Amino acid sequence: MAEMILGLPKEELFCSGHTSCSGCGPALAMRYALKAAGKNTVVVHATGCMEVVSSAYPLSAWKVPWIHGTFENAPAIASGIERAFKSKGKKVNILAIGGDGATFDIGLGALSGMIERGHKVCYICYDNEAYMNTGKQRSSASPLFANTTTTPFGKKIHGKLEPKKPLPFIVAAHGVKYVATASIANPQDFYNKVKKGLAIDGPSFIHVFAPCQFGWKFPTDKTIEITGQAIKSCVAPIYEIENGILKLNKVDNKIKIDNYLNMQGRYKHLNKEEVFQLQQFVDDRWKFLTELETKGKVFDVVQ
């Protein structure tokens, strides 16, 4: 019934029976992405949470052809598959999927190469803001002051000292026709963006915000609520960069970040000054995005 209300296809191509945690945000992202892509799809998956939980030999949660690459080379594998189908004159949707560790960090070079060569691949990064699969270590997607196993809070240092890497803008700077951010709290928006990305004649990139209850330390039934708080507080801005033009999803009645932070154990150590700094960062970024939107074309398009 939920899928009918949302207008999404009922068929599940990412199946139940995988071993993800209760309340797993990335698992929802996989469901919605495959509903958009459909059966005529090949998935190339980097090492990460969703690869591990969905492919325990000899089982698979995927009802489409699926291949596992290492952390660093999923875009390269997808590139080869795309060229192989192209040489045969066959039209197949190619999805490359990676978490923030495989995308923001380890596989960034391969992603850049895939884009620069112009392969018709839609890359989806599911972002749970740390290396959750290997022990909750920080990635460059981890936000400022986040408590991870490699950025633990102490008396002098309160979590991660660096802000989140602006990866969608790094990708857009390559001249990509379509870059978008999305959230599992708005499945229809994410679904539509995957559809649009796959229709692009060239590379496309979608960054989907997908909380991890295990790493963020919140109750398993709060995944959608906490994701909604991220949108309403502008912690996770939703936008498209299409043909170099940025279009930002408006947020009516914006809220402060306090409720979002208070719902998570990874921020329990913050003091008032640090909360203020985070709020200032969020406000400054939102102002930056709104100003960019008024400028029209902000990136040249070559792909």
Second rung of CATH, namely the architecture: 3-Layer(aba) Sandwich
By DSSP (H or I, 4+ residues per run), the number of helices equals 12
Low-pLDDT runs: 1-5
CATH class: Alpha Beta
- The main sheet orders its strands as 2-1-3-4-6-5-7-8
What's the pLDDT, averaged over the residues? Answer: 96
The chain-level structural class is alpha/beta
Q: What's the name of the CATH homologous superfamily?
A: Thiamin diphosphate (ThDP)-binding fold, Pyr/PP domains
Q: Helix and strand string, N-terminal first?
A: HHEHEHEHHEHEHEHHEEHH
Number of domains: 1
Structure characterization notes:
The chain has helices at residues 2-6, 25-37, 49-54, 74-87, 100-106, 108-117, 167-172, 187-199, 213-216, 223-232, 258-262, 272-294; strands at residues 41-45, 66-68, 93-99, 122-127, 178-183, 204-209, 239-242, 245-248. By secondary structure, the chain is α/β, with parallel strands linked by helices. The protein has one domain (2-294): Thiamin diphosphate (ThDP)-binding fold, Pyr/PP domains (Rossmann fold). The chain has an eight-stranded mixed beta sheet with strand order 2-1-3-4-6-5-7-8, with helices on both faces. Helix 2 (25-37) crosses helix 8 and helix 4 (74-87) runs parallel beside helix 6 (108-117). It is globular.
